[in-house]
Amino acid sequence: MTDTISAISTAIGEAGIGIVRMSGKDSIEIANKIFKDEKIEKLKDGENRKLIYGHIVDPEKDEIIDEVLIVYMKGPYTYTREDMVEIYCHGGVIPVRRILELTLKYGARLADRGEFTKRAFLNGRLDLSQAEAVIDMINAKTDKSYDVSLNQLEGSLSKEIREMRDILLNMIAHIEVSIDFPDEDIEEVTYEQLEEDAKRVYKKIDNLLSTADRGRILRDGLNTVILGKPNVGKSSLLNAILRENRAIVTDVPGTTRDIIEEYVNIDGIPLKIVDTAGIRDTEDLVEKIGVDRAKEMVDKADLIIAVFDMSEDLSKEDKKIIDIIQNKKSIILLNKTDLPVKLNEKQIRKILPDKKIINTSIVKGIGLDELINSIKDMFYSGEMDIKNEVVITNVRHKNQLLKAKNNIEDGLEAIKLNMPLDCIEVDIRNCWKNLGEISGDTVTEDILDKIFSEFCIGK
Ligand SMILES: Nc1nc2c(ncn2[C@@H]2O[C@H](COP(=O)(O)OP(=O)(O)OP(=O)(O)O)[C@@H](O)[C@H]2O)c(=O)[nH]1
Ligand SMILES: [Mg+2]
Known about the structure:
- The protein has helices at 27-34, 93-105, 115-122, 128-139, 143-153, 156-180, 191-210, 212-220, 234-242, 285-300, 316-325, 345-351, 368-379, 395-416, 421-439, 445-452, and strands spanning 5-8, 17-23, 35-36, 51-58, 63-73, 84-90, 109-110, 222-228, 260-266, 269-275, 303-309, 330-335, 356-359.
- By secondary structure, it is of the alpha/beta class.
- The chain folds into three domains: 5-111, 2-Layer Sandwich (Gyrase A, domain 2); 132-211 and 392-452, Four Helix Bundle (Hemerythrin (Met), subunit A); 219-379, Rossmann fold (3-Layer(aba) Sandwich).
- Helix 6 runs antiparallel to helix 7 and helix 14 packs antiparallel against helix 15 (421-439).
- K(+) binds at residues 231, 250, 252, 255.
C-alpha cells in the first residue's frame, strides 16, 4: 500500500469526459511532471481540492496530450484516505489511455480491480460490507436494488453487525472474568443472563436471514422460467413481456431450442426471465439438449410460468409439465383463448387447485396485466419500504450469517445444558468471529482478494 496507483475510472468508450485518477503519496509529484498551466505551473499542497485548468503534456516530447481540469485532494479526507489526484480529460479511448500511460511512466502503478476501494477499506474509511455495497451500487439494475446498496453503504448492515458483536463481546468478557477470578467478589455471570443475550443475537441473525431470499431477488432478479410443451406461445410471452422481438416465434413446434435469458424491470420488479425449449420427447439431438436444459432450469427457478394451449386437448407433454410444477411456485397460463376452446379448464383447475390460473391471448395482449399483477402480489405483498430496512443481498453475507446462526444455536444448547463456561465461550467466540467477517473485522487476505477482484478497475 505504499506505492501510488493509477487507473481510468470512467467507462471506456465515447463520452464527454473521462477521468484518470491516482492515489498514494506520490500522486501530486507524478501529476506535476505531466501537468502544465500557464499561470500556476504546478499543483501545490495549498491548492488542495481546487480544480485547475491546464494541459497534460508529454515532458519528453514537450507535446500536448489533452486539455484538462485537474484536482489535488490531500489525504485523509479522500475516498482512499490517501493523497489523490483526478484528471478530467476528454472522453474517448485515446485521451484517457494516453494520460494513464504517462502516469505509469512517471511512477504510478496500474491499480488492480477495486484497489481504490480496497485501500479505503484497509485505511478504515469503510468497513467491508460498505465496500461491497459500492460494487452493488455500480451493478444495480433497478431502483430498489440501488436503494438497498445505498442503505448498506450508509452503514445500515454494519450497525446491525456491530450491535450483535457488542453483545457477544460483552458475553465473552463476563464469561472470562468468571473463569479467571472465580473466588473474587465479582458478580458471576448467570446462565439466565447468557441465555437472554444469546437469544437476542439469535433473533437478530434470524431477522436478517429472513430478508435474504428477497434480497437475492432484488439483486439478481426473480428467476422466472417459462415452461410448456412446444408451440404453446412461450417465446411469444417472452417477447410480450420484453416488448421486443427477442425470441424467434413461428408456428413450427420446436422453434426454440436453447435457453434465452433476459432481464427486465417491471414496475420495480427485477425479472430474470428465461424462455425454454418446448418440453417433449424428441429424436432431434439439438432439441433434446434444449429440453434437458429446460428441465434443469426448473430447479433454480423462483417462479415458473407454465403455459398451456386452450385450443388443444391436454396432451401427455402437458401432463408431464403439470407433474414438474406441482411443488413449485408457479402461475398457470391458459393461452390462445382467442381460438376455439378444446382444453378442459375445469380439469386443470382440479389437478392444480392451489395455483393461480390466468386465461390469456398473448397475440391479442389479453391477460398480461393480470400476470404481472400476480407476480407482484406473490413476491411483494404490499409495497416494500426498502429504504428503512436492512436487506441481505449478498450471498457471502448470507453464508456468514448461517454460520453465525449455527454457532449461536450451539451456544444456546450448551447454556441450556448448563455446560462449563469455557465450552459456551467457544460457540460465542465463533459467532463473534463469523459476524466479524461480514464487517471485515476478522477477515483473511484471500477473502479480501476474492471480494475486490469482482470490482471494476478504477473503483
Ligand atoms: N391464436 C393464437 N396464437 C398464438 C398465441 N400465442 C402464440 N401464438 C402463436 O403460436 C405459435 C407458436 O408460438 P411460440 O411463441 O413460438 O411458441 P413456443 O411455445 O415458444 O414454441 P416452441 O419454441 O416451439 O416451444 C406462433 O405462431 C404464435 O404466433 C395466442 O394467444 N393466440
Ligand atoms: Mg419458443
